[in-house]
Amino acid sequence: MGLRPGGHEPVARIECRGGKRWAWLYRIDLAKPKLPMTLAKEAALDKAMAARQTCGTCRRRYFHCLPLKTLGSCLECYDGTPADPASYIAPPAKHLLAA
Ligand SMILES: [Zn+2]
Questions:
Q1: How far is the CA of 62 from the centre of ligand 1 (A)?
Q2: Are residues 58 and 81 in the same domain?
Q3: For a designed S-S bond to 65, which of 13, 51, 52, 85 qualifies (C-beta 3.0 to 4.6 A apart)?
Q4: Which of 69, 71, 63, 2 is nearest to 32 (CA)?
Q5: C-alpha dihedral over 65, 66, 70, 74, to 10 degrees?
Q6: What is the Å distance from ligand 1's center to 60 Cα?
Q7: In terms of domains, do 79 and 45 share one?
Q8: Tens digit of pLDDT for each residue in 48-90?
Q9: Ligand 1 ion: residues within 5 Å (CB)
Q10: Dihedrals phi, psi of 24, to nearest 5 degrees
Q11: pLDDT at 94
Q12: In angstroms, rounded to a whole number, what is the distance separating the alpha carbons of residues 22 and 14?
């Protein structure tokens, strides 16, 4: 229902299969809307975005999605088209040393 307990105790417990599966029931009128995107969710989303924005060759992370499915890298790695330095974040030094 897009709700979460509003800090109050559950009012009942529903049981299925002889109590093996159960869930607390809360009063809807005391419930609060689910929290907006948490930091954890944001981090997960950022990770997913990073995968689509990071060049597998030079490890730069661009501010736009890369044609990774077709090129597998950014344009600069693919055909030498210089990338605007303002369009990416240089990879951390550890990535360069890892090679
Ligand atoms: Zn690249």
A1: 9
A2: yes
A3: 52
A4: 2
A5: 180
A6: 6
A7: yes
A8: 999 999 999 999 999 999 999 899 999 999 999 999 999 999 8
A9: 55, 57-58, 73-74, 77
A10: -75, 145
A11: 58
A12: 5
